């Protein structure tokens, strides 16, 4: 709303300049009409279905009582099968703060067994996702977890690991190492379409900022 008023307020700059430099005072009603007309044009173009009137009173009333439409979607973490484990990994890239990655290992009952985060510096999302996956997979091998379902929301990285697409040049070696580690146990890779661990996302955001 502040942006709308800033844009609409620009229409009254010329009357202000005329008064300052030429001593010509614009009528108040004229300025109000210009502002309301600009607001009307902006709102009607962005929200064509709103019942709008060009009067300033009706526009202000509508802006004050407008409510955003909320959409709700259930997000569920699916447990692994009995005696198996699930490793959820994720990478994030926050621009100037750099990139980070992390993961969470849980058993079939949902008990937390391990969580990690790591800072990667400035890199791409695919690099952050592949690094997080590699760190998590390496930890599982070092600690005797060989029956693990690894879940990531990076479709491209999972496709590269499965050999469905050619790896990008800057993560080609990482993908090769992941594929080699995959043969040392029973590791399956699946794609998660949702952020099933929102607190992990918060952890990665803090990690990328704090370094």
UniProtKB/TrEMBL annotation:
UniProt-recorded Gene Ontology molecular function terms: nucleic acid binding; RNA-DNA hybrid ribonuclease activity
SUPFAM superfamilies: Ribonuclease H-like
Pfam families: RVT_3
Signal peptide: none
Residue ranges annotated for the RNase H type-1 domain, each copy included: 88-181
Organism: Anisodus tanguticus
Gene3D superfamilies: Ribonuclease H-like superfamily/Ribonuclease H (3.30.420.10)
Superkingdom of source: Eukaryota
Protein name: RNase H type-1 domain-containing protein
């Amino acid at each position: 709303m502040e942006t709308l008023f800033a844009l609409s307020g620009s229409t009254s700059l010329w009357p202000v300049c005329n008064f300052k430099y030429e001593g010509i005072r614009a009528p108040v009603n004229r300025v109000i009409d210009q502002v309301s007309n600009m607001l009307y044009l902006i709102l009607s173009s962005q929200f064509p279905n709103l019942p709008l009137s060009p009067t300033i009173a009706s526009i202000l009333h509508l802006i004050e009582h407008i409510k955003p439409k909320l959409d709700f979607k259930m997000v569920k973490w699916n447990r692994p099968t009995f005696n198996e484990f699930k490793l959820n990994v994720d990478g994030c890239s926050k621009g100037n703060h750099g990139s980070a990655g992390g993961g969470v290992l849980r058993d079939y009952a949902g008990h937390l067994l391990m969580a990690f985060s790591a800072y990667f510096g400035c890199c791409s999302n695919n690099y952050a996702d592949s690094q997080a996956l590699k760190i998590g997979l390496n930890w599982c091998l070092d600690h005797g977890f060989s029956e693990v379902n690894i879940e990531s929301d990076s479709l491209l990285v999972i496709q590269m690991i499965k050999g469905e697409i050619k790896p990008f040049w800057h993560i080609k070696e990482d993908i090769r190492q992941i594929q080699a580690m995959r043969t040392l146990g029973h590791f399956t890779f699946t794609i998660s379409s949702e952020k099933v661990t929102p607190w992990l996302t918060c952890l990665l955001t803090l990690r990328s900022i704090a370094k």
